[in-house]
Write a structure and sequence with these properties.
2 domains; alpha/beta; 35% helix; four-stranded antiparallel beta sheet; 27% strand; 8 helices; five-stranded parallel beta sheet; Rossmann fold
Length: 201
């Protein structure tokens, strides 16, 4: 199974590199490896990865983000809504940044990223590509305060390595902070996290 054409446009072209404990690297999922994983996902509600070539952001042995179809799918809604002035908490591989800045209706994007290594590996690439429409702030998203009077059409929070109901308190904190200055805001996997929290997971 090839990478779906629907998600092909959101694959990143950030160059591979290493900075400290972080790295951007290409990887392949072979058809032989993909088949059992997709079957497990189908029967157990998981997230399978179809065969194809992808890019991932690693911190040590932890996959922080990849441009696999499920992860891209998670970010399509804020990309679809984006216009005007947008803010993204968490840079990752830049899937959302690239998707949003590809839209002429988007005037400017501010990204808040805590890791200088990620800014070096990923942010530098996008700053060179979109020098007049992108600002990257090196800060903790949970502590960062936008300038007084600033307002955003879309705000997207994605500062977590994995989907987990333990992320909800931080999501709630961020949503309270931006509630009055964002036309729309969302957090990566919030609906999923809330559902699992209801089940006691």
């Amino acid at each position: 199974m090839a990478y779906s054409d629907r998600y092909q446009e959101h694959r990143v072209d950030v160059p591979e590199g290493v900075c400290g404990n972080w790295r951007v690297e290409r990887f392949e999922v072979t058809p032989e490896a993909a088949q059992p994983e997709m079957l497990r996902a189908a029967f157990h509600g998981g997230r399978g990865v179809p065969a194809g070539h992808y890019t991932r952001l690693m911190r040590g042995d932890t996959v922080v983000m990849s441009d696999t179809p499920d992860e891209v799918r998670d970010h399509l809604y804020p990309i679809r809504l984006a216009k005007g002035n947008c803010l993204i908490n968490g840079l990752g591989l830049g899937v959302v940044v690239a998707g949003i800045l590809a839209k002429p209706a988007v005037k400017h994007v501010t990204v808040v990223e805590i890791s200088p290594e990620v800014v070096f590996l990923v942010g530098t690439y996008y700053l060179e590509k979109y020098p007049n429409r992108l600002t990257i702030v090196l800060a903790n998203a949970l502590e960062y305060k936008p300038a007084r009077g600033q307002r955003f059409n879309v705000v997207w929070h994605d500062i977590w390595d994995a989907l987990c109901s333990d992320n909800l308190p931080e999501m709630h904190k961020l949503h309270r902070r931006y509630g009055r200055i964002a036309d729309w805001q969302g957090s990566w996997g919030r609906d999923w996290c809330e559902e699992y929290a209801k089940r006691g997971c």
